[in-house]
């Protein structure tokens, strides 16, 4: 019998989608991310992961955006050996173990109490890895995290589930608490009504569960978040469609991803945005 998950809220359960997608990627002969620990985590939890109906395209994008965020964390840690890394809405992500930062780096994984408790059960303990059980809509979420060291904050699949006022609050709280650093997150561009209708029409459970939790329609211009907090400055907009790992995608997904490079909308649907403060 695996770890029970019946007490988790619907938004907390969205963490199962991303960890399962990373687990499926790790089983491929030529994985994009190769997170075998994600597969171990899935094996410890009592949940119908197969019932999510996770599509191959979702596995590809989930694995690639995680790898791209990992690469940016590695670069930041290389430049700042005394860094603090903060994973916002961490869920069951094992980024700390993939990046394997030096012992001079502290890593904080922030998420709601229910999924944070599951995280502590399924992932191995490490002296520099810390779980923060808190809602990111609570101003106090960063209070226990060091504020005077270079800080790299990441958010994978988080902001689509929050309202714009909540996201603005997080952006402002970051610079109120942390002295300097960067924020990197994945973004989907503008989520229009056509996309919302398409999600509702999909028979897969994953689309019904995730689509019901969407709280923010997104934005086109990557400079738009700068209006939320003038201390945030856009330093990178990287489309997943240009990543070399796209060559590892299965046939038609690889072709469609490369074709998306030629459309502004297509490029924005899968991108990593990075801001300095």
TrEMBL record:
Q: Which InterPro entries match?
A: Ppm1/Ppm2/Tcmp, SAM-dependent_MTases_sf, TcmP-like
SUPFAM superfamilies with a match to the protein in the record: S-adenosyl-L-methionine-dependent methyltransferases
Q: Is Chloroplast there in the keyword field?
A: no
Give the keywords, sorted: Methyltransferase, Transferase
| GO biological process assignments | methylation
The keyword Transferase is assigned to this record: yes
* GO MF annotations in UniProt: methyltransferase activity
Return the protein name.
GlcNAc transferase
Species per Swiss-Prot/TrEMBL record: Mycolicibacterium agri
């Amino acid at each position: 019998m695996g770890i029970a998950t019946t007490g988790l809220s619907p938004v907390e359960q969205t963490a199962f989608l991303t960890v399962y997608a990373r687990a499926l990627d790790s089983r491929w002969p030529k994985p994009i991310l190769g997170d075998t620990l994600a597969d171990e985590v899935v094996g410890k939890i009592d949940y119908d992961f197969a019932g999510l109906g996770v599509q191959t395209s979702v596995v590809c994008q989930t694995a690639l955006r995680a790898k791209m965020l990992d690469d940016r964390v590695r670069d930041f840690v290389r430049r700042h050996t005394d860094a603090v890394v903060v994973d916002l809405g961490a869920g069951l992500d094992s980024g700390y173990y993939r990046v394997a930062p030096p012992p001079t780096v502290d890593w904080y994984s922030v998420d709601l109490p229910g999924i944070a408790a599951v995280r502590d059960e399924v992932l191995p303990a490490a002296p520099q890895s810390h779980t923060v059980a808190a809602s990111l809509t609570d101003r106090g979420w960063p209070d226990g995290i060091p504020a005077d060291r270079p800080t790299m904050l990441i958010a994978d699949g988080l902001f689509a589930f929050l309202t714009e006022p909540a996201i603005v609050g997080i952006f402002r709280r970051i610079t109120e608490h942390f002295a300097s650093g960067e924020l990197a997150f994945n973004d989907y561009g503008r989520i229009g009504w056509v996309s919302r209708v398409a999600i509702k029409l999909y028979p897969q459970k994953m689309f019904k569960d995730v689509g019901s939790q969407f709280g923010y329609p997104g934005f086109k211009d990557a400079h738009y978040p700068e209006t939320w907090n003038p201390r945030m400055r856009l330093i990178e907009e990287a489309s997943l469609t240009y990543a070399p790992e796209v060559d590892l995608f299965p046939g038609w997904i690889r072709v469609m991803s490369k074709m998306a490079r030629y459309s502004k909308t297509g490029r924005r649907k899968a991108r990593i945005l990075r801001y300095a403060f």
